[in-house]
Write a structure and sequence with these properties.
Elements: E1 2-6, H1 9-26, E2 31-34, H2 41-54, E3 62-65, E4 67-69, H3 80-87, E5 99-100, H4 109-122, E6 128-131, E7 153-156, H5 159-165, E8 178-181, H6 184-188, E9 192-197, H7 203-211, E10 229-234, E11 249-253
Parallel strand pairs: 1-10, 1-11, 2-3, 2-6, 3-5, 6-9, 9-10
Antiparallel strand pairs: 4-8, 7-8
Helix pairs in contact: 1-2
The protein binds 2-amino-2-deoxy-6-O-phosphono-alpha-D-glucopyranose.
Length: 254
């Protein structure tokens, strides 16, 4: 595991965008796993800027998003479909037929999970997965649990997550209670993973992910077992980390 501690959210976003852009330059038909939330917004802005200024070409890129709220149609501004269109897809030259998110309106979520897994497999698997982290150390919408859920599945959101995500809604009551999310195995199968986190409110989750036991009670801790993870965070999110962490190669960039 590599850990890059940056001086700011902007620096974190540049580092992350460079990794994604590098992946696409090396393999123009890359399959990317993408995340929503406030954390990757500036990374998407950087990638859009690189597309516009240097011609970073997304025409052969395929994307799979981590998750979607259940019951939300793609044209609902609170949906992750809408978020991705607004924050990324409509600004780049990606082909709509290469963009995938779980369908939050599917009648049968078990079948939808299977369909999504098959789609990922048919595209050759995920080359680079981008992750944020929840305050409770969730990745995607894999909430703390007694076991790791393997593949794309329906989840009931934690009260902590509902509260954290209520900032995007008019009130907490409007936050959906259920979502469909890639599972831990889906994420762990990705060739490369980058985990992003910024802000003091993520410091405990980052500590659990990097220094805690590998446990489904802190889902991000599973990344300690992945063969190629870069954790890119700002200094606030690194506030609880010790100077050295076993098995982690630490770089500091201001
Ligand atoms: C959300 C998403 C995650 C995201 C996380 C953190 O609920 N399901 O994929 O990484 O919570 O969100 P934010 O980046 O807004 O802090």
């Amino acid at each position: 595991m590599r850990l890059v501690i940056t001086g700011s959210y902007e620096q974190m976003s540049i580092e992350a965008a460079n990794i994604v852009a590098g992946q696409i330059y090396l393999k123009p038909n890359s399959v990317l796993g993408l995340a929503t939330g406030s954390t990757p917004v500036s990374m998407y802005q950087r990638l859009i800027a690189v597309h516009k200024s240097l011609g970073l070409d997304f025409s052969q890129v395929t994307t799979f998003n981590l998750d979607e709220y259940i019951g939300m149609s793609p044209d609902n501004p609170q949906s992750y479909h809408y978020f991705m269109q607004e924050n990324f897809f409509r600004h780049i030259n990606i082909s709509p037929e290469n963009v995938f998110l779980p369908n939050g309106l599917a009648e049968d979520m078990v079948a939808e999970g299977e369909r999504y897994e098959k789609l990922i497999e048919a595209r050759g698997g995920i080359d680079l997965q981008v992750l944020g982290i929840g305050q409770n150390a969730h990745i995607g919408f894999n909430e703390p649990d007694v076991k790791f859920a393997a593949t794309t599945h329906q989840v009931e959101l934690d009260s902590e997550t509902i509260q954290a995500n209520s900032r995007f809604f008019a009130s907490e009551d409007e936050v959906p209670r259920y979502a469909i999310s890639m599972g831990i195995k889906t994420i762990m199968m990705a060739e490369h993973v980058i985990l992003l986190a910024n802000g003091r409110n993520k410091a405990e989750a980052v500590y659990k992910a990097l220094c805690g036991d590998v446990t489904p009670e802190a889902p991000a801790s599973i990344l300690q077992l992945h063969r190629d993870v870069a954790v890119i965070i700002d200094k606030e999110a690194a506030a609880m980390l010790p100077d050295t962490i076993r098995g982690v190669n630490v770089t500091r960039k201001s």
